[in-house]
Amino acid sequence: MKKKFILIGVTALLSIAIDQWTKVLATQHLFGREQLSWWNDFFVLTYSINHGAFLGLGDSLPEAVRDLIFSGFVSLFLIGFAIYAVREKNMSNLQNLACGLVLSGGLSNLYDRITNNGGVVDFMNMGIGSLRTGIFNVADMAIMAGVFLLLFYSYKNDAKK
Q1: pLDDT band at 160 (very low <50, low <70, confident <90, very high)
Q2: Is-catalytic flag, 140?
Q3: Catalytic residue among 19, 67, 140, 158
Q4: Which of these is catalytic: 19, 59, 112, 122?
Q5: Segment holding 36, helix H or strand E
Q6: Per-residue pLDDT tens for 44-79?
Q7: Pick from 36, 41, 42, 47: most CB atoms within 10 A?
Q8: Cα–Cα separations (whole angstroms), residue 107 to 16, 45, 119, 153
Q9: Does the annotation mark 112 as catalytic?
Q10: What's the pLDDT band for 29 if we cut at 50, 70, 90?
Q11: Residue 63: phi, psi to the nearest 5?
Q12: Are 4 and 86 in contact (CB under 8 A)?
């Protein structure tokens, strides 16, 4: 059990620290400036505040509704997910790592919402031509990596059965 706490906790703390540090750097170096791009616009850095969820989903909702969904419900989800992650006894190290990534991304973006008037600092974008990702941050990558690892483990585990 102690190993589980350490793996989830260290993963979450490191990921939150990296995310918040990159958001500070993005704010210092990208805010009010032209976007930076590499490899024929494949990778672009541009400062953005996202008041919605993934890809700006819900950013046009009234502020009170956005706060309820993106702060209130997300807080409840993160509490429930943390309880599940800590109490589930049969999780592998990979699953614990994945839970730490999901929790860290959610917590770091929630911290942003609380401290940035409901917005999250986003600054990365990738794509080829008009086929592009939305603007995202390190916390979003942590969430996606954690979810991917959980799905991969579930698929791999189901294949064994």
Answers
A1: low
A2: yes
A3: 140
A4: 122
A5: strand 36-38
A6: 999 999 998 877 788 888 988 998 999 999 999 999
A7: 47
A8: 8, 23, 14, 23
A9: no
A10: very high
A11: -55, -40
A12: yes
